[in-house]
Every structure is written in C-alpha cells, then in structure tokens.
C-alpha cells in the first residue's frame, strides 16, 4: 500500500492530522494569506447610549459690588449629546451663590420651566436632545452686593431620564467677580407722539418718552422735563407706568422717578397726555424731553430727544339757506329750506380769485351746510341754480341768527351772491346764512 502524504491518528479521542515531510515543504513554499477577524454577533449589537456633556459659556461675569441690577450676570448653560442615542427629559440644575436670585419667567417664552423654590434650581423644557445635537439655556443671575475683587461660584449640571455612557462630563462651575461699576448714564431713547400725523384743537394726544440707564451704576433723582407750547396743556398727569410721578410747573411737565433708577430698569416708559388749544400754530408740533440726574454720568449728550405731530388749525363755516316766501328778510319757522335751489358755495380768501380747488360747501336736505377751513378772512360766494325764479333776499334784516348774510349779487340768469368778509378762526365757527326770495 502506497504511503499517504498525511496520516490520521486518534489521540485522546480527537482526530489529529500529521503532515508528512514533503507536505510540510509544499505548504512552507506557499505565500502567506492574511486572515481577517470579523466581530462577533454580540460585539456588533453593543447598546447605544446617550452622553450629555455640560459646559458654561459665560457672557457677563463681572458684576457690580453695589448689587442691584448692576450685579446681574449673564451666562449660558450648554449641553451637547456626545453619545450615540437620544437624551430625553433634559434638565439643567444650578446651585447659585447664597443670596442670588433668578426670574423664572425670563425663559418661559423660550419653552423653559424653571423651579427656583429649592436651593438647587431646575430648568427643563420637555424636549429630547438627539445624538450629536445640543441644548442651551440663557440664564441671568442677580447677585447680592459684595466686595470688590471677591469671586463667587455657581455650579451647573445637566441630566437626562435615559441611561448615560458617562456622568463625569455632566457638570461644571463658573465664577462671578465683583468690580467697581461704570457710572450711570441716562439716555432718552425716543419721544413719540400718538397720533403722529394730525391733531386739532381740543383733541388729546399722548407723548411717550422712552429712556434707559445704559451705564453701570444706579442714577439718583432722575427727572424728565417736557416744556409745553403756550397753547398746550396737560389733560392728565398720570404717567401710566409705575415708578413715576408728574407735575406741571413753569410751563413744563416734569416727571420724577420715585426711587433710584437702576440699570436694566423695567418700566422705561412714561406717558404725558396733552391737549392742544385753539391758536396753536398750524404745522409741526414738536416736543422735547430732557432727562437729568444728580449722579455722575458717563455722558449727557444722550439726555435729550424730540418727537412730534402735526397740528391742523381750522375753523368751520356754516349756515342755513331758506326760501323767504314773505320777503321780510327773516327765516320763519314755516319757511322751507332752499335745498335744490343753491348749486354751490365757494369760500374765497380775501383779495384772491376763485380757483378750481377752492373750498366748497353744499346744502343738505335741511338746507344747512358746514365746511372746515383754514383760519383766515373769507368771502362766501353763493351760486343759484341757472334760471331760478328766486333772488337773494334783503340782508341783515334783524336778528343775526335769522336773517340773511348775502350782501350783494349779480342778479340775472346766472345769479351769484356774496357775503361780507368774515373771519374764520381756529376751532371757531362762522355763520353765513342765505335767504332766497321769490322774484317779484
């Protein structure tokens, strides 16, 4: 029997392959093949986990040693999911310095709910942070007064309702430093008038003054003064916004802040309700607001602002046109209106000729008319309907409330009458009555 290049032996119950010398020499001369190791099924199914990494991103960490609004620090808590699975129910936790406060409502518009009733504050928004995504919370912390140069620490952390790969990166600490603040700086940002387009005599309008303390320290004894034109008076001295009280003296309204005006102060508006009287100059009505404080300021150049509206000065020309059937020159109770008999009424400034855009008046069914006019001296031209069998009655026959004010006419087929020169005053009413008598 011919020998095989290998033989089988059974050793300890196992099949063993013994290579002969020639076989070993053949294998040794073959190139070496690389063997790739594939992961096991268990390794490929390794669980995915969330992993939140927390960091502080300070914005303003130097605060006023005086305290108040100047000791407000602005920081951002930032959490990135560096894991491989989503992180639901993300919550920020903060351990503030003793005496520090936060307004939980500041972040409500952004979907956050913050509980500051416990020593450790908690803020959540109910959202889920996917793997590779991030979440942040802008936080403003109001610190108590301190000592210049001292620092206070605030601890922050983040959590999720899911299991995390690591908790070592879930927290961090930031510090706030007390410094000497910059001086106060009261700035009048704007003066706006409502309505801004037009007001008339006797109409109320509102003046809103917007200001702010853009410095670093509170400002004491802050006042805002608005001089009034001679024809303008206050309709109300209620500033509408808390913290202010207003009074009129020496031709101006002055509003005083009831307490120190801190930086980032709420209620940065005050309102003056005014009314313009007759005789106010026609055209722009400008109001100037000037702020002052007894505290040192960074700058006083921003303490003044102006705003305005447009005053429309106008009066009214009105009258009654009737048929003076008994030709006595007086309007009797039973005499009818002249509706349908008068074509138009023109109001022409003294010394001028009528133009295409001259103001006009027209009778209603009761025989009355009313037209608003700029203050001035006018002549009323009255045009009768062509060929009408009526003429203008005798003027100024007696009671001015009942007689006719048309003092002359052309007569004829195209009959035009006219009044004497009359004055129209701002907010006043001038009457020109028109009596028509049957042609005899």
UniProtKB/TrEMBL annotation:
Which region is the signal sequence?
A: 1-34
The protein's name in its UniProt record = DUF11 domain-containing protein
Question: Which species is listed as the source?
Answer: Paractinoplanes deccanensis
Q: What is the lineage of its organism?
A: Bacteria, Bacillati, Actinomycetota, Actinomycetes, Micromonosporales
Q: Name the UniProt key words of this record, in alphabetical order.
A: Signal
